[in-house]
Design a protein that fits this description.
Strand content: 15-25%
Number of strands: 4
CATH superfamily: Response regulator
Shape: globular
Number of helices: 5
Helix content: 40-55%
Order of helices and strands: EHEHHEHEH
Structural class: alpha/beta
Radius of gyration: 13 Å
CATH class: Alpha Beta
Number of domains: 1
CATH topology: Rossmann fold
Distance between the termini: 12 Å
Strand order of the largest sheet: 2-1-3-4
């Protein structure tokens, strides 16, 4: 099984949504997420999007990069915000790519749905290309 680490700043919206969606739609890939400065909470609208997509798991929570490093090695790391692309450490032996998404935090629910669809389009396309799935 391939392992992917999704990184952002707060680990409350984009990276959590990406983790849940990848784990639902790619059975041969195990996704993890973390933040460079985790907020300590999952945004309620991000959780709602994942529940509606039938992709929510109660184990999803906002966490530090150090908390997920015990799952290394990762086959791929993906930064989903510009801050994470600058602040997250390089993980030896792990290819890192940057696919930014607009942060829906503080915006209406419809923006979370839009971000979810962008993740399913742009991030999923990159995963299919990278892993040939």
């Amino acid at each position: 099984m391939k392992k992917v680490l999704i990184l952002c700043t707060g680990n409350s919206c984009r990276s959590i949504m990406a983790e849940g969606l990848i784990n639902k739609y790619f059975p041969s890939i195990k996704a993890y997420s973390a933040g460079s400065k985790p907020s300590g909470r999952v945004n309620p609208n991000a959780k709602k999007v994942l529940i509606e997509e039938n992709a929510w798991k109660d184990k999803y929570h906002s966490k530090t990069i150090e908390e997920v490093l015990n799952e290394a090695p990762f086959d791929l790391a993906v930064t989903v915000c510009d801050n994470a692309a600058k602040e997250c450490p390089i993980i030896p032996g792990t290819k890192t790519i940057h696919i930014p998404f607009v942060d829906p935090d503080g915006k209406k629910y419809e923006e979370f749905v839009k971000t979810k669809e962008e993740i399913k389009d742009r991030l999923f396309s990159a995963l299919r290309t990278h892993f040939q799935v």
